[in-house]
User: What shape does this take?
Amino acid sequence: MSRLVVISNRVADPRKSAAGGLAVALADVLNSTGGMWFGWSGKIIEAADGGKPGEGEMHTHQAGPVKLVTLDLCREDYKSYYEGYSNGVLWPVFHYRLDLADFDAGYIGGYRRVNQLFARKLLPLLQEDDVIWIHDYHLIPLAAELRALGCTQRIGFFLHIPLPPPLILAAIPGHDWLLRALFAYDLVGFQSHSDLEHFARYAQTEAFAQNLGDGRWRAFNRTVHAGAFPIGIDVEEFQALADAPEGREMFDRMTREYSRRQLLVGVDRLDYSKGLPHRMRAFRELLQSYPENRKKATLIQIASPSREEVDAYTDILHELESLCGSINGNYGELDWMPVRYIHRNVARPKLPGLYRASRVALVTPLRDGMNLVAKEFVAAQDPADPGVLVLSRFAGAAEQMTEALLVNPYDIEATANAINLALQMPLEERRARHAALLATIRKFDVHWWCNSFLDTLSKAESQVSGTPWLRL
Assistant: This one.
C-alpha cells in the first residue's frame, strides 16, 4: 500500500481525537500506511537562519507509525502568507466578503514564498510511490511548486471552505495564477456540488478549459479531475463521547439547571462568516413576535475566540456582545436570562452532552464550506426525544441535510419563525426528521469522505509526462 503524505497549514497528532475532525478522518489511513503529516509548526521566529524570510527550523516527531514534520515560519512570512493572503484575501473572498478583503500587493509574495519553502523542504522526504493529499486554501499552489521541482507522485487537493462564483473569484488580483495552480493536481475536491459547479464555470470562463466528461477538465496542457466530497464526522466516536463521563455529566447538569427551560444552542468560532449578529437578531425577533417563549427559551451561544488581532473580528465581537447585552437587558427577568454568551473554548468531550440537552441547534452561517456542528448535533441526540436542527441554506451541510429546517439567515423574521416552529415541533415529526438526518450522516461519514477521495485519486488519470511543469 502506498504511503499517504498529508500537507496542511497546521499538523495534529492523529492519536488524539481532541485534535479535531481532520485528524480523526486521517488517523486510520495514516496509521495503516505509516504516513507522514507535514505543515507549519505554529511557531513564529523573529529572525530566520541567515536573515532570510521563511527559512525556519524543521522538526520531526514520531506519533506511533505516523511521522509529523513541522516547519517554523519567520514573522514576515507569517504576516504575509497567513494573516495577509490566506486570511486577509482568500478567506473573505471565498466567503463572498469582498468588502473585507485586503488586496495588498505585498501579501502574495509571502504566500508564494511559503508554498515554495514547503515544496523545497518536503520534496527530499517523499518516496517514489507516495500519495500526496494537500488541504485547504493556505496551500493552493503547493502542487505546482512541487511539480516545478520534479515531483511526479499523485497529488490531490481538498478545499475545506466554499468556492465562490467566477465573478467573485475574478476580483482577486492575479486570480488566474490560482486557477492555473489547481491544474497541477490530479484531483481537486470540494465540499458541495455548488462549489464544484463554481469551479467548472470558473475553469471554462477564465481558462477556456475543455470538459472531457466524468468530472475531468483540460487546460494548461493538464487534465484535472474535480469532484464533490462532502466531509462528515465519525458518528460512532461522537456518540461514544456523549455516553462518556464528561458528556453525561454535562447533559445531567444542563437538564437539571434548565429543567424549566427549553435550551437552544449555537457553537461557532467567532467569525464574520458565521452570521452570529444575524442569529441574535432572529432570537430577539422570536422573543418579540412569540412572547410565549419568554421565560421559557434560553439560548446558549458559544463563540470561540478567533483571530482577534484583526479589526473585522474585533468589530463583530463588540457587536455580538452589545446584542447579547441588549436582549438580556430588554427581556431578561431576575430568574431568567434569555442569552448565555460564552466567549471561550469549551472542551470537545463536553459538547455532546450540551447538544443532547438542547431542544434546538442554531447553525446559521452566512456562508460555510460544510459546518460539522450540524452533524455533531444530530449524532448526539436521543432518538427517542431528539432536538431540531435549524440550518442555514448557505452552509454546505444543507445539500445533504434537507430534513433540517432550512433558513435564510439574512431574513430575520423568517428565521425567527423557523426557530419557533422548531420549539413547537411535535415529537413524531422530530423523530422522523432526526432518523432521516442520522441515516445520512452515518452513510456519508468521515471515513466515507476519506476513502472516496483517496479511491478517486488512485483512479485519476496519471499526469506524469516528459514535459516539466513550469514554475508559476
The first strand starts at residue 4 and ends at 10. The chain has 16 helices and 16 strands.
